[in-house]
């Protein structure tokens, strides 16, 4: 395993991290989830990501229990806050009250004394940005969180936040967690340049485009048994058996998309990689990407995906990938 600094900050995370969205505390048996976390840790993964909204807090409990057997200083834990955690008006968003209540509740579910990376899961239009940032600064000063960041914020929102941080001499924004993959490249235009300028690192989710970039979904065929698209607990993000919501510029996930993805298979084979390994390595080609967050319900998925760490794709391979997917040029 290899490790990278998160932006300009001293903390280092494994190039491949393990997340719990749509899996732990919900679709995956708790014992199996713990086995995947254990295998990832054995393979050198030190970065584990969750959120309070994942399975209504159950994912945090599963992750916390699994990590309890390891030294606290040996792993980096990320969790997030924004989405409703109850019916009340103060049980959601990024108000000072919800940030403090939510942080305390997350620490209790995780059974930990502090959170390494605490992220605003979305932007809150209903709360002054100054209020949110001052609350996060206070949580940092109190030692309940070590670093904080954002997820799925625009470049403009990040820029506004950084200007407030500077003006009020607050602890800096350290991390951004956006969606990023070969099929979802939107952050390359504005978000990554903004974050590079401000020393903010990326820990990206859905680097395999919800499984589409593993090659398991075939044109004209139903999703394979056991896949995320075939699972009624997880397929709310899929339409007609293939990825719909999380593709570049909301491109419809039809057979033509799967046909383009199919063209990647020989490119990966010639590079000595699986399609999934190549997709992860593609994200990691950017220095600003500190880690790619994978999901895993099987130990075999962990074993295969962690080997993407340290892989380098040549300019020729990158050009072939762009040509296969119909992009003009690599970032």
* Silhouette: globular
Task: Supply the CATH class.
Answer: Alpha Beta
The structural class is alpha/beta
Largest beta-sheet details: 8 strands, parallel, barrel
Q: Write down the Rg.
A: 19 Å
The name CATH uses for the topology is: TIM Barrel
Which percent range describes the beta-strand content?
Answer: 15-25%
Keywords:
two-stranded antiparallel sheet; alpha/beta; TIM Barrel; 331 residues; 35% helix; single chain; eight-stranded parallel barrel
Task: Describe this entry's structure for a reader.
There is one protein chain. With 331 residues, this protein is of the alpha/beta class. The chain has 11 helices and 12 strands. It has one domain: NADP-dependent oxidoreductase domain (TIM Barrel), CATH 3.20.20.100. Helix content is 35%, strand content 15%. An 8-stranded parallel beta barrel has the order 3-4-5-6-7-8-9-12, surrounded by 6 helices. The two termini are 25 Å apart. Residues 234-253 have low confidence and may be disordered.
